[in-house]
Design brief:
Length: 245
Amino acid sequence: MVADSDNTSAPPVQQLALDIRWTDIASLDSFVAGANQQALDAVRRAAMGFGDRLLFLYGQGPVGKSHLLQAACREAGERGFKAAYLPLNEFQGMPPGSVLAGMESMDLLALDDLQVLAGEADWEEHFFYLFNRTRASGGHMILSADRRPVDLSLVLPDLASRLQWGLTLRLEPLDDVGKLQGLQARAAARGLELPDDTGRFLLSRYARDLGGLFQLLDRLDGASLAAQRRLTIPFVRQVLGGDEG
């Protein structure tokens, strides 16, 4: 067990060459906040290099956690800061020391899906050291999980206590008005126009969670480009008819 101290030392490891990309349409300006304006404001402050040094976002399902973390890194990078986004669920089974090596040098470090570390003693210990080194270097951290820090069932109580040092905010799902705005913002980022009536049709007849709706929009984007058709209700029926629920 790691002692409750400011120890930042960990065994030296070789850093992996991580090929991590975030979606090019994730931006803070395109995030539809709904009831999550406080979280958006806090993320924007962190991306600008001030505000809370530790921001913990949580919520079940596709409520915008990954969008905000990726958008924060994009914003920070455009401002000349060093930023890194790590989707932790993609690194399960890999050596944590190699994945996390050197990340304390980032001005902004965004770690997504922190719940996958819970119960993994080696990962928890390496993240504990990274947490301390990042704090010591003055960097900002934005973390996300599907539940609050206190509910993560971490092996290391010292790590659990540290995750509560900053600002913790719950992300709420969007209502239908917010979902429509989110769909239209994503369509606009792809150079598409999504009329109100078509957007409401998608909401009423197909997947209701925003992640599923975004996947449908991705399919419509490709079909629209291939057919040189606008996103009308008849065209949506033609493309997605078999998925209608």
